[in-house]
Design brief:
single chain, mainly alpha, three-stranded antiparallel sheet, 12 helices, 57% helix, elongated
Length: 321
């Protein structure tokens, strides 16, 4: 066995052990007591999952969801939604993991084929899971695991609730849809944020609250989307972030690509408007020796340093061996 095969074998063995460990604590609870109320989430936990799924669906489309829209969607979906069975959720999470790695159920791992040229890479592109797919699958499984951990202590109370629910079901075959109040929705949102379920919120430049799912949509990208109805704010936010954090200027060509899609004449008009607006007068521009225009904020980058970085990024770094 060559060294590469040994590494693959070790990775497969490690993943198999990790899967067994991850499934062990939650699945053992379900198997030991099923069918029982332990196989059922609490109403609040079930509603947190509904909220997470709604936000994740929007982020999967590379969109933010505003609080009123999220409340409306949650109220409609949660009103008549049954409480899911824990073992069904775990099975769905396992299927998502299998689908993410393009492996058959029960197999340990999928080793993507080697790609030697562009044609092979294109042919095998759909066979290799993206980091985005992996983040979503792992986050979902960990979220479910967190909701199910430590529930053995609730056995007695859960069984009592199960009996009461069974009696109620006999008396009423089709329960009436629940009334979802805004106060209860706020409680679900606060719970999802406090538990760090992957849901995050932000306030846009016009004081609107948006939500996004971090494994699918980063905070930086979410901020850009929140200012999509105001290109000037969108540009200023990204330029200031790069100047403050990295620090580096931003090439003006960035704003002609996704998610900005600004035309050259629009960019020119915006750049001419920045010096006239006291709130945006910190946005400056510089050019490299190749004529590439870079934007920066002089709140965080000195002019001389911005000139140096623009030249380095556009010329020196490219020509360095």
């Amino acid at each position: 066995m060559n060294r590469e095969a040994e590494i693959c074998a070790d990775m497969n063995a490690a993943e198999g052990a990790a899967q067994a460990s991850l499934a062990g604590s939650s699945a053992a609870v379900i198997e030991e007591h099923a069918p029982s109320a332990l196989d059922e989430l609490s109403r609040l936990d079930a509603d947190v999952l509904i909220l997470v799924d709604l936000v994740a669906d929007a982020s999967r489309r590379v969109e933010l969801i505003e609080r009123p829209a999220l409340f409306a969607a949650f109220r409609e979906k949660a009103a008549a939604a049954p409480i899911p069975k824990a073992h069904e959720l775990l099975e769905d999470a396992d299927r998502q993991m299998d689908s993410t790695y393009n492996r058959a159920p029960g197999t340990v791992s999928f080793v993507p084929p080697k790609t030697k040229n562009r044609e092979e890479r294109e042919a095998n592109r759909l066979k290799v899971p993206t980091l985005r797919d992996q983040r979503e699958a792992f986050t979902r499984r960990e979220l479910l695991r967190g909701l199910l951990e430590g529930r053995l202590a609730e056995t007695a109370q859960a069984l009592e609730r199960e009996n009461a629910a069974a009696e109620a079901a006999e008396a009423q075959e089709a329960p009436e849809p629940r009334e979802i109040t805004e106060e209860y929705f706020n409680q679900v949102v606060d719970t999802a944020l406090a538990r760090d379920c992957g849901v995050a919120n932000l306030t846009s430049w016009d004081e609107k609250e948006y939500f996004h799912y971090r494994p699918l949509l980063s905070a930086s990208y979410a901020r850009i989307l929140s200012a999509k109805n105001n290109p000037a704010e969108m540009i200023c936010d990204l330029v200031r972030e790069h100047s403050r954090i990295y620090p580096r200027p931003v090439t003006i060509g960035t704003f002609q690509e996704e998610p900005f899609n600004l035309k050259p004449e629009e960019l020119q008009d915006l750049m001419q408007s920045f010096p006239k607006d006291p709130k945006k007068s910190d946005i400056k521009f510089t050019t490299s020796s190749l004529g590439t225009v870079f934007l920066y904020s002089n709140k965080y980058l000195e002019d001389d340093y911005a000139d140096f970085l623009a030249q380095y990024l556009d010329v020196d770094q490219v020509m360095s061996p």
